[in-house]
Amino acid sequence: MLEKRGTELLRSLPAVHRLLDHPVCRELAEAHGHKLVSTAAGDMIGEVRAGILQGDETVETNLDMLADRVAERVKKQFQMNYRAVVNATGVVLHTNLGRAPLADAAVDAIERTARGYTNVELNLQTGERGSRYSHVEELICELTGAEAALVVNNNAAAVLLVLTEMAKGKSVIISRGQLVEIGGSFRVSEVMKASGANLVEVGTTNKTHEYDYERAIDDDTALILRVHTSNFRVVGFTYQPELSDLVALAHARNVPVYEDLGSGSLFDLRAHGIGDEPTVRETVRAGVDICSFSGDKLLGATQAGIIVGKQEYIKRIKKNQLTRALRVDKLTLAALEATLRLYLDEDLAKRDNPTLWMLLRTPDSMGPEAERLQAGLAAVFGDAADVQVEPGFSQVGGGSLPTEELPTWHVTVRSRQFSLNALEQSLRHVPLPVMTTMRKEAIHFDVRTIFPREIPAVVESVRDAFARLG
Ligand SMILES: *Cc1c(COP(=O)(O)O)cnc(C)c1O
Hints:
α3 packs parallel to α5. The longest helix is centred in the N-terminal third of the chain and has 20 residues. 39% of the residues are buried. The protein is α/β, with parallel strands linked by helices. It has a 7-stranded mixed β-sheet, sandwiched between helices. Strands 2-12-13-16-15 form a 5-stranded mixed β-sheet. The chain folds into 3 domains: 74 residues, no CATH class; 119 residues, Aspartate Aminotransferase, domain 1 (Alpha-Beta Complex), CATH 3.90.1150; 249 residues, Type I PLP-dependent aspartate aminotransferase-like (Major domain) (Aspartate Aminotransferase, domain 2). The protein contains 20 helices and 16 strands. It binds pyridoxal-5'-phosphate (PLP). Pyridoxal-5'-phosphate binds next to α8 and β9.
């Protein structure tokens, strides 16, 4: 039997139709549709009633409050799982965080083309069917010095496609030191198997000589594959032939050379004291027949695999049936073309390509942002934490330049009274999650990968996350 209070509560519970008539619910129905709102309202009233029947006397039956709770439910259903986050890790090309952030020009290009129709496969000059690759091919050739180019879904797809077209049922020679695994279980040896090519390993883990390649070439050889060891370094007693020497010996035996560059930079970072990555132009100039690289690593565009090389080979690859399955979508093309155009002027690329801009930030240039963030966070925590600016190192990431350490500023938070683990976790549950690193009893915010425009929002996210600790 219900107590008297319970009976009163049941009686004061509004009918679903009355709740739906509330201005808040009407507005919700306008935005999200009547069906979802009435389901949410019905479910909630049902739950409140069940609570009362079980003797819960603390339930709320006030109409305004119930309407707000319906709004909360409906909004939760529309909250995106896939969201923007702040990268405070200092890893510029963070694969789990989507690698390269796009340039404004690329975002604008997506915006301009996404809402309506485009000339993706239309030749506007002739009015006839066109090729989706034509929009970027000339530009890629201009920027790399290659004869021809093709863009596919990603560089893993590029490797699969090139090996399938060039070497299916034949053999491919590769140095043992280059049989690498790249993040996400992409193994060169496995891709080779999938393509139907036979792997011929030469040399040793640390040393492969010209003669190792020479001896391995026979009538069955379709290709020499070089894989740029982009995500690790073998140091000490090592040897690999110069690319141009390898090309010379391969061409003397009529064997084409394919270089999987991995990152593939169009910008010479070495000139700025960063890494030892060859540019795509240099690789092409060394005479390789085919070369492929990612769109969203050092290039700083969207996920894509760019294949450049000699016309005769690119022509064949374009005709392969797999190309259709690995094709690049129209939004990627928009972002890629806009990003590539920035490279027509190096200064423009440095300024507007966020990947390059972040890589080239110096501690001096980041100082004011470090101080702004430190002041904002110090105000959030008050006496609860010690907030400092300390020197640290950022990483390039994305399997690029693994040993490179870029000097940076870390804003560090050391707790005086709360759990740092709880704060780190809470920072992932706020509407704008902030990804940090935890080191030596402190949460680190690396300033390098936080856009200056994000700093006020980071402070708000931290305020929110801290408040949620209770
Ligand atoms: C990253 C990488 C790939 C894979 O490129 P995705 O664009 O991520 O598919 C292939 N080869 C090398 C050497 C790489 O570094």
